Amino acid sequence: MPVVLRSSPLLWARVAAMVFTCVAFSVALYGASLTHGTGDWCIFCWSFSFVGTLLIILVEMFGLQTRAPISWKNFPITFACYASLLCLSASIIFPLYFLKGYTGRNEMINCRIVSTVFSCLATIAYLSEVSLSKARPGEVAGYMATAPGLLKVCETFVACIIFVFINEPITYDQNAATKWCLAVYCICFILSAGIIVMCVGECTGCLPFSFARFLSTYALLAVGLYLSATIIWPIYKFDNKHGGQSHRPNSCGSSMGLCPWDKLLAISVLSALNFILYLADLIYSARLVFVTV
């Protein structure tokens, strides 16, 4: 089997991302002394991104794209987008939990600083890969290489973060309004994730209706659902008249990472962010002319 490795900006972006993630998790495991469970998440982000990028490089090196049971027009850029978001989250979470409040210049602090720096570099490398891989005007490409496809990845990732914050501690069982918000997050996540799976698995042709029309209809529905959650969640969590707490507790200043009130605020911000993402998705989906999916 011939080995083909053509030098290109895309290849070098992948190699750089692979090296940066490898350094990030290697240094963290070597001397960062990660005792909090959040450290496991950061290690997962870096190692998962490293392994996935390595597999993509190997598949293209040995020319196995046509034998892969997935759409190679959609999978690499989908993975790169998720990897960039994973590394970005690790670049934010890691210093928040493992550098905030620590002083000194011992080996542990130095290792944590190095992991944070290389995590940021890996994020930039993956964003470069996404930029190099995305569809250009008039170019025949897979759906995931278009703006709506990349927005779907961001929407599902933001929803996953919301699920983490809303379940630790559980904050959605206050009343029917907050349960409605949870339902919105779940419905939109499941449908967006299903669209991604169908595109990567090349199953869109199996639908009994137009995939393009379904995308536009779903985007319109998601905008309405997230608009309701963006309005309802802050009212019932930060308005004293509805059982909320408008001021940040003093105890939050001494807690490591995010306290429960901070997580409620983060859910409000992320809900608004996903509303904006779905609104942009709706605009792009209404304008997009599908050449191939």
Descriptors for this entry?
disordered C terminus, mainly alpha, 293 residues, 2 domains, Butyryl-CoA Dehydrogenase, subunit A, domain 3, single chain
Describe the SSE topology.
Elements lengths: L8 H23 L5 H25 L13 H24 L8 H27 L13 H21 L8 H25 L10 H28 L21 H28 L6
Total domains = 2
Oligomer classification: single chain
Order of helices and strands: HHHHHHHH
Q: Roughly how many Å apart are the termini?
A: 30 Å
Give the amount of beta strand, in percent: under 5%
Largest sheet, described in full?
none
Which stretches of 5+ consecutive residues score pLDDT under 50?
289-293
Round the Cα radius of gyration to an integer and report it. 21 Å
Mean pLDDT: 88
Global structural class: mainly alpha
Count of helix runs:
8
Helix content: 55-70%
User: Which word captures the global form?
Assistant: flat
Q: How many strands in all?
A: 0
Explained architecture:
- The chain crosses the membrane at residues 12-31, 43-63, 75-99, 111-128, 140-165, 177-198, 218-236, 264-284.
- It is a multi-pass membrane protein.
- Belongs to the MAL family.
- By secondary structure, the chain is an all-alpha fold.
- It folds into two domains: 1-137, Butyryl-CoA Dehydrogenase, subunit A, domain 3 (Up-down Bundle), CATH 1.20.140; 146-292, no CATH class.
- 69% of the residues lie in helices and 0% in strands.
- The protein has helices at residues 9-31, 37-61, 75-98, 107-133, 147-167, 176-200, 211-238, 260-287.
- The longest helix is centred in the C-terminal third of the chain and has 28 residues, at 211-238.
